[in-house]
Amino acid sequence: MRLDIRTRRERFQEARNYSVYYGQGNGHKLSRYDIAIVEPSAQSVDDIRVMKESNTLIIAYVTVMELGSFHSMYSMLDEDDFLKVNGKRVYKEAFDTYILNLQSKRWQGLLHHHVGNLLLNEGYDGIFMDTIGDVEGYFLPPVERNIQINQATHIVKRFRESFQNHLIVQNNGLEQLCVKTAPYLDGICWENPPFSQKESEDWCYNVLDRVIRMKREHSVKALFLNDQHEIKLRPSAGIISQSIADKHEFLYYEAQEHYMTLL
User: What's residue 135's pLDDT?
Assistant: First the structure.
């Protein structure tokens, strides 16, 4: 194993490339990247060892605000743990998941324990907080949206206080949430930025300014992430995103086949 005395944060800030892969194994391929964002249930002890021997920073995917019946923690939930609008659970058909209520102390406890196990027992260098951007969802009434944004901020702040030597990366939540969580983050990821869509242009450049400000004021490293499925629908999306990422020294990655294969 190569000796690397730099801290995780120093290595993260100096990283020149990264990957996002939710498929099984492939530790040797992942070890070619400075940062590997992976689904922990699909990685073995040997895969983690191989990546660590190459000084790859291993970031564990963690869902913050969505669970489906297929998830290992789903059976631990009670009805009060689900977010409800007009008395009904909020369901995301595209992913077969339900939106969780971040006010739930049970879910906060389960999530914190899960993250602690990944970071302190399973050897991960940090977490990639996915689905946390749901707090800004159009399906939430304004009052509920503000409540969930505040609760999400509390959760991220607690992660930072509990796991000071590990990396915290937020996926999306780029309108209001990132402004509140920026002091506690090491990285912010913008998944499928819609620069190629004319109707989203003003919104995109407002978000870009916000991300640049986070980078400048809080040393938050910025990552652009495109799913190749989206690129196929809008071929110019990748070219534009890559160009903007290069200009502002963001990391850029195009995920293959819904994040299930590697280049």
Answer: 98
